[in-house]
Write a structure and sequence with these properties.
Blueprint: H1 30-34, E1 39-47, E2 54-58, E3 69-70, E4 73-75, H2 82-94, E5 97-110, E6 115-127, E7 137-141, H3 158-161, E8 167-170, H4 173-176, H5 178-190, E9 195-198, H6 205-221, E10 225-229, H7 232-238, E11 242-245, H8 247-252, E12 261-266, H9 269-278, E13 282-285, H10 301-309, E14 316-319, H11 327-332, E15 337-340
Helix pairs in contact: 5-6
C-alpha cells in the first residue's frame, strides 16, 4: 500500500448531491432512545484505495438485513475500544492487517433489533490482499457512482461525506485584491481544488456581488463546488452550490436552508450539536492555532479539537493557522480535512 499522504492527492471532484441525514437516519432521536435501549458500539471501516475507491460488503443469507450492503466492521467487545474492534474485524472479515486508520465520524441509528453507535474509521493503509471471508460479496465503489443497493440505512448517509475533498479553500479577495484572487483561484482549480467558500465581509456590496458571480462561473467551469458565506440571496443569485452559515446564523436557524450544500462555522460543542441537528453537510471547527486575523488569541489546539470531534456525526474541517502540512495531524484528530484562507492561495 502507498503512504497515507496519497490521501491528500485525490481531486474530490465528485458530483454528489446526497445529503447527510436525508435518509431516515433518526440521528436527532438518538439521545431520547439511548436511555431506553442499550447502545451497541460498532466499528466501521471506510477502506480507501489510492484511486479513492472504497469497499462495501453484502451481508450473507441468514444474517440480519441479509442482502444489504455495508461498510466492513463489527461490534466493540466489552472493555475494548473501537480501534481494537476495527483491527480484529477486518482481520476476520477480509484477512488484512490494518497499518493505518484515522478516526472519522460517529453516527447513531435505531434499528428494530438494536440501537447502534457506529465509529467510522478511514483505513488508508493495510497489509495482505483483501479476501471475502464473511460477506456474500465485496465491491469497490466510488462516491457519486456507487452502483450497489440496498445500503444499510445507517451507512448510506456516509456516502455523501465521502464526496467531500480533504481541503476547503476560503477566499481572501479583500486582502490580496479581486484580480489576484481570481488568478489564484484559476490556478488552484487547475491543480485540483474542488471545494471553495467565498467569504468577503470587507468588500462593498457591488464589488462583492461581481466577484462572487465571476468566481462561481470559474468554479463551475472546473466542476468545483462553491459556497457563499452568510448570504443566501447572493448564493441564489449567483447559482452557487450552497451557503456557509456563520456561527450566529447557525444558532438562529431552525431548519436546514434549502440548498444542495450547507456548511457552518463552529467553535464549541453546542454549535457542533446544532449543525448535526440541522443535518448540515459539514462544518469547520477552530481556530486550532492563533491566526493573523486574531493576533494574541490562542487556538484551541489539537487535543481540544479531537475531544470536540469525537462524537460528531458530520464531517469536520479543522481551521485556524493551518496549511497542507497539517493534514495528517487533522486526520489523527478525527477531522475530515483542513480549511484555510491564506494558505489556500500560496
Amino acid at each position: 500500500m502507498d503512504h497515507p499522504a496519497r490521501f491528500a492527492q485525490r481531486s474530490g471532484r465528485l458530483a454528489i448531491r446526497t445529503r447527510l441525514c436525508r435518509l431516515p437516519c433518526r440521528q436527532d432521536q438518538s439521545k431520547e432512545i439511548a436511555h431506553l435501549r442499550k447502545i451497541v458500539e460498532v466499528a466501521a471501516a471506510v477502506m480507501l484505495r489510492a484511486d479513492g475507491a472504497f469497499l462495501l460488503g453484502r451481508r450473507p443469507p441468514g444474517s440480519v438485513y441479509a442482502g444489504y450492503w455495508e461498510f466492513p466492521g463489527g461490534k466493540v467487545e466489552a472493555g475494548g475500544t473501537p480501534k481494537q474492534a476495527l483491527v480484529r474485524e477486518l482481520q476476520e472479515e477480509l484477512g488484512i492487517v490494518v497499518n493505518l486508520a484515522y478516526p472519522w465520524i460517529v453516527r447513531e441509528f435505531d434499528y428494530e433489533h438494536a440501537h447502534v453507535r457506529l465509529h467510522f474509521f478511514r483505513v488508508v493503509d493495510w497489509s495482505e490482499e483483501v479476501r471475502d471471508l464473511q460477506h456474500d460479496a465485496l465491491a469497490w465503489q466510488h462516491a457519486g457512482t456507487a452502483g450497489v443497493a440496498p445500503m444499510l440505512p445507517a451507512n448510506a448517509p456516509v456516502l455523501a461525506a465521502l464526496g467531500l475533498p480533504d481541503f476547503y479553500a476560503i477566499s481572501n479577495a479583500a486582502d490580496i485584491g479581486v484580480e489576484a484572487q481570481m488568478a489564484q483561484l484559476a490556478k488552484k482549480l487547475e491543480q485540483g481544488l474542488s471545494l471553495v467558500q467565498l467569504r468577503e465581509p470587507a468588500l462593498p456590496a457591488g464589488p462583492k456581488a461581481a466577484f462572487a458571480a465571476a468566481a462561481v462561473r470559474l468554479c463551475r467551469s472546473h466542476s468545483a463546488r462553491v459556497l457563499i458565506n452568510s448570504d443566501a440571496e447572493l448564493a441564489l443569485k449567483t447559482g452557487a452550490d450552497g451557503i456557509h452559515l456563520n456561527a450566529t446564523q447557525l444558532m438562529a436557524t431552525t431548519s436546514r436552508p434549502d440548498f444542495p450544500l450547507v456548511a457552518a462555522s463552529t467553535h464549541n460543542a453546542e454549535e457542533l450539536a446544532q449543525a448535526a441537528r440541522l443535518g448540515l453537510d459539514f462544518v469547520v471547527l477552530g481556530p486550532v492555532r492563533e491566526t493573523a486575523t486574531h493576533p494574541g488569541q490562542p487556538g484551541i489546539g489539537w487535543q481540544a479539537l479531537e475531544r470536540l470531534i469525537a462524537t460528531t456525526p458530520i464531517p469536520v474541517y479543522a481551521l485556524g493557522g493551518l496549511n497542507h502540512t497539517d493534514l495528517v495531524p487533522a486526520w489523527q484528530a478525527g477531522a475530515h480535512g483542513i480549511a484555510a484562507i491564506r494558505a489556500a492561495w500560496t
